[in-house]
Amino acid sequence: MTWAALFDRATAYDVSLEDVTQTLSTHREEGEE
Amino acid sequence: MTVDPVRVVADADVLAADLLVGGPDREALDALRAHSWTTLVASDPLLDDAETVIATLADAELATDWRQTVAAWAELVDHPPGDHPALSAAVNGEAAHILTHDPALTSAETGAWLHRFETSAKPPAAFARRFDPATLYAATVGGEYPGPDRDPRG
Mean pLDDT throughout B124-131? Predict the structure, then answer.
């Protein structure tokens, strides 16, 4: 799948950088427990 | 140990933001996608983290398709389980740059530790701003920079 197609599909979601960093932080904290 | 200035690790936040947010994260990775003589270094645990973020904030099918595409592009390296994926991928993959939004990785303390491995962590916007393909091409490939040689959306 091309990057263009992936980016096009991703536009369906309203995601902020803060959403990304918070989700990753939570995921990694859960992995440490 | 000699790191390669065109080998770059993107932490899972940058990988996911490249897909879901755009902005400086995509600009930074576009610089790599557009130049075949650069290398995105990653590891399976690093891609696992990004895939989880994408599946959580978007959907599992998009995350799976993203994983296949990024795995075909990146050079995957092994590292000990339990290591921080971005740090260990950079150290074991001899990468000069770690792109991350994690303030713990861009702190002075971590920076001093990373300096021993000739690598450094920086936000993607800083990497994109400083990326100088002509200078890097001359230093690593040699000769006159021919311009981007790959479609960053391909």
Answer: 96
